[in-house]
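Bit of a strange request maybe. I'm writing a small parser for structure token strings and I need a real example to test against, not something I typed by hand. Could someone generate the tokens for this chain?
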Amino acid sequence: MDAVTHRRVAEVARLPLASTTYWFESKEHLLTAALERAAERDIERLRAFLREPPGGAADPLGLVVGAILGWLLATYALVLEAARRPALRDVTTRWTEAYLEALKPLLAAAGSQDPLADAELLLAAGDGLLLEKLASGDASDLAPRLRRLARALVNG
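Reply from user aminoacidic:
Good idea to test on real output. This should exercise your parser:
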């Protein structure tokens, strides 16, 4: 996020610098617009994923894990930045709520007694697991660990 500047965005977009400064008066506005766009795209991807799940809806916990992995990969750096920049928090809140709403029916179908609480725990645990995996350099067992946690939550 620190590398995002008006000059760099204009360079990558092959636009004059005045274009980015005209539309985005500050770096904060530039980051907020980028986060909003990323959230819109990812929420639509999530909705499409839920409409036409890979392999059908026979494995609700598999869909939960797939959705959470998508969330983690799409939002990690932006959510961290929102912790430092209050202007980004509204977008990350809406993005998180979209995932929670999508996960609730999947967890209910898997047998969860409290789908919202389980969804909140799974997203939080996923964040922590991803951080640990990024630090170790090996995220190969992230999905199986999330599945194990989801199964434990659903089974009580």
